C-alpha cells in the first residue's frame, strides 16, 4: 500500500490522529455494511398514500415494499418476511382486517407485527380482534406516522 502523503501521516501531522489515509473509513464502512434497515411492507389501495408514505419512511431509514391490496400483502408477507406490516383497512379484494387474520393464521407470518390504519375509528376493535398490534388513525401526518413506526420498533427491540 502506498504511504500516506506527509500532510495526513500522524508522525508528521499530529492532527491526523492516526487515521490511515489509504483507508480512512474502512472499519466504519464494514460496520455500517453489516447493519440492515428495518423492512416495512405497506399495503394501501391509494397510490398517493403508497408513494408519499413509502418515500417518507424510506428517508426515515426503513426499507419499504408496497402493495395495493390485501391479497398481495398476505403473499408478500410470507415471501419476504418484513419486520413490520402496515395495512390500510379499506382495500379491494380482501380488506386489511382479513389480510391481518390470514397473516396471523400462517405459521410463517404469525409473529410479524401488524399496524393498521383507517379513517373509521370504530374499526379499531375489529383490527384488534384480527390480531393487529396497533392502530393508526387516518388522516395522519407523516412525522406522526414515522414516530409511531420508530416507537414501535424501539419497544419491540427493548422487550
As for the number of domains, it is 2
Number of strands: 5
Q: What portion of residues belong to β-strands?
A: 15-25%
CA-CA gap between termini: 46 Å
* Element order: H for helix, E for strand: HEHEHEHEHEH
- What Rg do the Cα atoms give? 22 Å
Order of adjacent strands in the largest pleated sheet: 2-1-3-4-5
Helix content: 40-55%
Number of helices in the DSSP assignment: 6
Keywords:
5 strands, alpha/beta, disordered N terminus
Blueprint of the fold:
Blueprint: H1 26-34, E1 39-43, H2 47-59, E2 63-67, H3 70-80, E3 84-88, H4 96-105, E4 114-118, H5 124-130, E5 134-137, H6 142-158
Parallel strand pairs: 1-2, 1-3, 3-4, 4-5
Helix pairs in contact: 3-4
How would you sum up this structure, described in words?
The chain is of the alpha/beta class. 42% of the residues lie in helices and 15% in strands. Helix 5 links the parallel strand 4 and strand 5. The chain is globular and about 35 Å long. The N terminus is likely disordered.
